[in-house]
Amino acid sequence: AFADRLLLNKTDLVTEADLARIEARLRGINAFAPIRRCSRGDVSVDSVLNIHGFDLQRALQTNPQLLNPENAPTQHDKTVTSVSLDQGAPRHMRTVQKGDLDFELATDFLEYIAESQGEDIYRMKGVLAVAHSQQKYIYHAVHMTFSGGFEEAWQPGEPRESKMVFIGKGLDEQFLASTFNNCLATPENLTRKASTLRFKPGDAVECRTTGFDAEEGERWAAGTVVEVLHRADDMAPGEVAPYRVRLEDGSELTVLTDEGSEIVGANSHGDEDGEEAGEGCEAQAAPQQQQQFRVQVPDGVHAGQAFPATVGGGHLIFQITVPPGHGPGSWLTVTAPVEATGGARAGGGAEGSGAAAAGNSAEGTHARTTHQAASEGEADHEADEASKRHKA
To answer: Which of 114-128, 186-200, 206-220, 279-293 has the lowest mean pLDDT?
Structure first.
């Protein structure tokens, strides 16, 4: 009501009739301020700064009680807070570590927040410094609506520092900061990410080399994994491929996703009866419906606290609560059936133990750790019961 300029943004997304209706409503609230239409916030600085537009008498016309000290105070919802993660903040105020982010880990993190807390996230936005990119990744989201992309380039001498802002209800600053740190492209985080892949260097595999052909079907070729988390100069900004594979003919292939539709174990594609390649791939997919993943409890996360664990090459995210007796550095083993509403359970790792029950849904994958079951049968029962609770 007291604005000196009104910017009507995203005008490219609505009709002229919608714009006329919205402008009429705005003029009913503020009849004095000019309305400027724009898209993607593209307005000149001169049109909004140093305009000396505030007029006390005009403000009093809008609200005669503006200067009345007896006016009822504004009520604020104390559950609504904001959290800022700024790598450029002074050391005593900085809650996150410095360094470039791994693009896949960072976007999985943002997707997880939007899906699991979207109703309570009023706004989140940020500028990210991503490893293997000379451009800034700029994003913003309202609830579950997300938009982001690589845009302007980092300037020479400009610090490569990421900034994230969250506004919403029930924000856990410690959780957000620790998860941000787990997304940094550090050797420790990348080693943990590589450990979730299905294959390691030296493994014999078969890779899909072409798309589907009506006459020949899909073509697959045998080879050996020579590198994991492969990056090449001709790849998209921030992109890192799970595998680089040397085929039997000596050529090399970059595999962009750790999925059974693109790469499988050796001798598992098709069978001796001449089964077609596409059918062989479908047959191989069944064992992948249930896999074991080892996840390490990150720094700063202790028993009773939750953290998101990215597994399966960065394509599944489990929300895991650390069981009693475990903390930073402990390893947990998660058995995850990748189904629409399947259950999941975690068992003991070499350095730690725990059990988890989880459900997989369109909104994401979540897991909750409990004590390890006394027997395999009890563990299966836990998973079944957790699946029923998740469905309910």
So the answer is: 279-293
Largest CA distance in the chain: 89
Q: State both tokens at 326.
A: 């475990």
- What is the rounded distance in angstroms from the CA atom of residue 214 to the CA atom of residue 307? 45
The HSE-up count of residue 154 (CA atoms within 13 Å, CB side) is 20
Kindly tell me the burial class for residue 374, based on how many C-beta atoms sit within 10 Å of its own C-beta (0-12, 13-18, 19 or more): exposed
pTM as predicted: 0.60
Identify the residue with better confidence: 68 or 108.
108
Three-state SS sequence of 247-313: ECCCCEEEECCCCCCCEEECCCCCCCCCCCHHHHHHHHHCHHHEEEEEEECCCCCCCCCEEEEEECC
CB 372 within 8 A of CB 355: yes
Phi, psi of 261 (to 5 degrees): -75, -10
* Cα–Cα distance for residue pair 326/301, rounded to 1 Å: 9
For the stretch 45-76, what's the b/e string if a residue is b when 16 or more beta carbons lie within 10 angstroms of its beta carbon? eeeeeeeeeeeeeeeeeeeeeeeeeeeeeeee
Summarised one tens digit per residue, pLDDT across range 123-178 is: 999 999 999 999 999 999 998 889 899 999 999 999 999 999 999 998 999 999 99
Q: Are residues 334 and 383 in contact, defined by beta-carbon separation less than 8 angstroms?
A: no
Q: What does the CA dihedral 246, 252, 255, 259 come to, rounded to 10 degrees?
A: -40
Give the residues across from 307 on adjacent strands: 320
Task: Decide if pLDDT at 390 tops 90.
Answer: no
CA 220/CA 383 separation, integer angstroms: 36
Q: How far apart are CA 221 and CA 207, in angstroms?
A: 5
Q: How far is CA 287 from the centre of its chain?
A: 26
Region of 52 (left: φ > 0; alpha: ψ -120 to 50; beta: rest) is: left
